[in-house]
Design a protein that fits this description.
Blueprint (H helix, E strand, L loop, with lengths): L3 H10 L4 H15 L15 H24 L1 H19 L6 H26 L5 H26 L4 H20 L7 H21 L7 H24 L9 H21 L3 H5 L1 H14 L6 H18 L1 H12 L1 H4 L8
Length: about 350
């Protein structure tokens, strides 16, 4: 299986012409009876060898981390980071393997972040809240720097999302360090970070409306990172998991989910629907249970939500055309094309 990034790289290298690449995309879209822009294609596996290599990498990196941590806590993270970078020189830079590249990115950024944490814990295991917030801000910025360096060298699409999450941690940590009494503002801060990440994802998306280059892959992972940062604070502030869910809360949750569906249709991304799905399932289940359907509450919930999502998937294109048309021509020119 070849991703849009692979086709783009092949065109850049001169292996195929731009016209041939476009013809291939059109052929695949015709076979699937859906435009390529609506498929949200991204590459996770190039073959079973990806899984084989990923398992081997996980075992090796875990062993390096454990051996290093036995020497000093910081050595474990540093060893994993160095090993992940060196392994990425082959499996990412030369072999361009998808799943191993994602694993090695996570190991590198995680190892870089874990190194100062290990050193600080070795010095003093119990810090105050303000110092912990400063540490979070510091390691978050360290993670941003690590993601930036990895992107400059390997350009794995998920790297930008990893950097955005690290920057979120740095921002929240800095806010708590400056204003220690912000406990009640944690969820709004995360929501703000999610909206900022969503805006960044849209910027990448708008740079490739046809979704034929690496920019589309970067946007996909940014949307995937932004979605839980948006959905989790909103539904938690509503207290969905804090007590019995009555008809009013259930109706509000469903209304928010419909709003998310409109946004997902407009931007042609499904991540927001997936991230908020657990809250909708729980709210609807609690509503059925409070109505007396204790034994069949789960079945009724699955029947309604499953049917709704399948209907949305089957009629995604005509529904999206209607939503984009309602937004006006100016906005439509910034979004992925709604193919007739």
């Amino acid at each position: 299986m070849y991703s849009e990034s692979d086709l783009d790289a092949a065109v850049t290298a001169g292996a195929i012409s731009p016209a041939a690449a476009e013809s291939l995309r059109a052929h695949v879209a015709a076979q699937r009876n859906t435009p390529a822009v609506d498929e949200e294609s991204f590459r996770l596996l190039t073959g079973f060898n990806d899984i084989f290599v990923a398992v081997a990498l996980a075992l090796l990196l875990a062993a390096i981390g454990q051996i290093g941590a036995a020497i000093t806590p910081a050595m474990g993270g540093a060893g994993v980071a160095v090993a992940a970078w060196l392994l990425a020189e082959y499996f990412t830079k030369r072999r361009r393997m998808a799943l191993p590249s994602i694993l090695l990115l996570g190991a590198f950024v995680g190892g870089v972040v874990a190194t100062p944490i290990g050193a600080l814990v070795a010095l003093e295991p119990n810090y105050g809240d303000r110092v912990n917030a400063l540490i979070l801000a510091g390691v978050g910025l360290t993670g941003v720097a690590a993601a930036w360096a990895h992107w400059r060298r390997f350009m794995v699409p998920i790297t930008v999302a990893a950097g955005a999450l690290a920057l979120t941690g740095a921002g929240v940590g800095a806010a708590f360090a400056i204003w220690p009494g912000l406990d009640d503002a944690a969820l709004p801060l995360v929501l703000a970070a999610g909206l900022a990440t969503f805006a960044l994802a849209m910027r990448w998306d708008m740079s490739d409306r046809a979704r034929t280059t690496r920019a589309s892959d970067v946007a996909f992972w940014l949307h995937l990172a932004a979605a839980p940062l948006i959905a989790h604070p909103i539904f938690n502030m509503l207290g969905v998991f804090e007590g019995p869910v009555g008809p009013a809360i259930a109706a509000l949750v469903l209304a928010l989910y419909l709003g998310f569906a409109v946004v997902a249709l407009a931007v042609d991304r499904r991540a927001l629907l997936v991230s908020s799905l657990a809250y909708v399932l729980f709210a609807l289940y609690e509503l059925f249970r409070s109505a007396g359907a204790v034994e069949l509450g789960t079945a009724f919930t699955g029947l309604i939500i499953g049917s709704a999502l399948l209907t949305l998937s089957a009629f995604w294109q005509p529904m999206r055309r209607r939503v984009v048309t309602m937004l006006g021509e100016g906005m439509a020119m910034r979004l992925p094309p709604a193919v007739a």
